[in-house]
Task: structure prediction
Amino acid sequence: MHSEELIDASDAELVVVALAGNTQAFDVLVNRYRRAMLTVAQQIVRNAADAEDVVQDAFLRAFESLPQLTDLNRFGAWLHSITRNRALRYYKNASRYQPQEDMEPYLNTVSDTSAIDPAQIVESELTQQGIRDAIQSLPPDYQEVIELYYWAEMPQQRMAEFLSLPLTTVKWRLRKAKELLKTILEKRGYGEDL
Result:
């Protein structure tokens, strides 16, 4: 398969090609699922750097175990399971788990800050932090679908496969999560700003 064909291929097709020795096919799968896996890992380990380590480990385990995958159409769900298990093991085995704040969202990468009002920057950061806090207060099932949908930009069908859930369940959880999030944000005074 050529590069263009790989990008449009299904997960099952990519697994077959990867098993035949084409590492580019596995790279496409990595790019397809990386952000979703980071979302899952970070929910468990609560630290971006540790989540990166978990995802790298999960991809390595998945690549090594690829020949044992029995249902090629369930690659996403299988990968989700590996990621979740690796994150739980990492969290359990961490000698001293201390949640750390991920500072990356706070770093300003704008080169010309003279045109930006500092008050707007602070207000924007406070709003973003308020939204992150509201998402963290959602039940885990709702938090997971919101993060996969918005942050990992995962389509609902792929999310259903990744989470091993019916599409209708994913749609329902996403709708309910949005409703709960809106209510939480309105109660915290963010309703008129969003």
Notes: The chain has nine helices and no strands. The CA atoms of residues 12 and 72 lie 5 Å apart. The longest helix spans residues 23-45.
